[in-house]
Each structure stands twice: as C-alpha cells, then as structure tokens.
Design brief:
alpha+beta, four-stranded antiparallel beta sheet, two-stranded antiparallel sheet, 3 helices, 6 strands, globular
Length: 102
C-alpha cells in the first residue's frame, strides 16, 4: 500500500473520544485516553493513527470489543451496533487536550 493511501486510512481509524467518569479518572491517574475506533482496526493501526493525529508517543494500546445493547422498540426487539474502544497509554509528559487552546 502506498504511503499516501496508508495515511488516509489511518486518518479514519480513530472515530472519536469516549468520555465517561471512568475514562476521566484514567486520564488523571494513569495518563490514558480512550477512543472509539473502527471495528476492523488492530493495535498497530491504532497506535500509528493516534501518533499521527495528535503528535504524541504511545506506550501501550489495549482494545476492547463492546457488544451492542438489545433494545425494545414497541413490540419489536432490535440491537445496537457492536463497537470497539481502545485504551491508549501515553508516554510521560505527553497529553491530548480535547478542549483545545483557550
């Protein structure tokens, strides 16, 4: 795969941050951030994408496959999409600021 096509694919791996009380505590305590990522991505793709997008050094990537919830819509049952999230441990001194400069 050419370098330009590879970088274009890496730009689509990270779908967005996953913000919750748990992820906020992880960010403060262990210098970790959590992202929703594409289901077909692997740890190497996620590492390269985060380093490319945010200009940080990634120490570790952990991946969790989350199953979609079963929901009831009237009398019918449906299911939300399955999704994947990645716990990214950043190197000491690196930080990702989602709020941007103030």
């Amino acid at each position: 795969m050419s370098n330009a096509l590879d970088q274009e694919r890496l730009m689509t791996v990270v779908l967005g941050p996953h913000v919750s009380e748990k992820t906020t505590a992880l960010a403060d305590k262990h210098n970790q951030v959590v992202f929703r990522v594409r289901r077909d991505s692997n740890k190497t793709d996620i590492r390269r994408a985060v380093e490319l997008l945010f200009d940080v050094t990634v120490e570790q990537v952990r991946v969790v496959n989350c199953r979609g919830k079963i929901k009831k819509f009237g009398q019918e049952y449906g299911r939300r999409k399955d999704w994947k999230k990645a716990y990214i441990t950043l190197a000491e001194g690196d930080d990702i600021d989602f709020m941007g400069p103030e």
